Amino acid sequence: MVSYNVGRLFSEIESAVKSDVPVAEGLLRVIQFCETARPHPDWSALRSLDVAGDLQQFQQWLETVMRQMPPPAPVTGLWFGLFNPVVQGRVTADLHLIGAPYSANDPDWLFRQRWGGDTPDASSTVLDAIYRVAYGRENGLGNDAEYPLCLAYAALAVRHLAKLMGPTLLGDAAQRVLHVGFDSGDFLCIGAVQRTGLIFSRSRSVMT
Questions:
Q1: First vs last Cα of the chain: how many Å apart?
Q2: Which of 58, 60, 94, 169 shows the greatest Cβ crowding within 10 Å of its Cβ?
Q3: Separation of alpha carbons 44 and 34, rounded Å
Q4: What does the alpha-carbon distance between residue 185 and residue 148 come to, in Å, rounded to a whole number?
Q5: pLDDT digits over 111-140, tens only?
Q6: In the 8-state DSSP scheme, what is residue 115?
Q7: CB under 8 Å, gap of 24 or more: what pairs does 119-123 form?
Q8: Whole-structure pTM over 0.85, yes or no?
């Protein structure tokens, strides 16, 4: 469990994501919230992550996925899942992408007609750096850094890319609802990419 009021923390993340705040600024806002509640010297290292460079890598990854293995039109929901793969013998944090026909009334929508089981992982340097700092030493921040910062950064990055490359994400679908979260836990419904652009959801969990 994290050391924060989880409701307030999630509201802080959601308000940053569902806004026009740049990714780096939004992440710093979440770090400030966390540091106030959980003082620790390692927050300083997390303030200097190479967000700009990683966002370029994120864009290249997503463009490659959408070009080489585009989801069919019936796939109207996308899940950007946070998980902990083992890479070269070391546990890290990263993001993968799958999708399925979306239904706000069906909590199991992602398990039906799934697309994307063979898409490559994002290989995010920022998510990796967050994990390294969080667990890199005894008495480190651990999940008090991994949970809020991985979720916040991934959601901010997906929102950034959705605005930047909306038509590519949309493809032939009428809309694509975007979710970011831990494969084994909490997630955020950002909103939907439509012909008119990205529409933020009024709900944390479903597109409304």
A1: 29
A2: 58
A3: 12
A4: 12
A5: 888 999 899 999 999 999 999 999 999 999
A6: B
A7: 119/65, 119/69, 120/61, 120/64, 120/65, 121/85, 121/94, 121/95, 121/96, 122/57, 122/58, 122/61, 122/62, 122/94, 122/95, 122/96, 122/97, 123/57, 123/61, 123/94
A8: yes
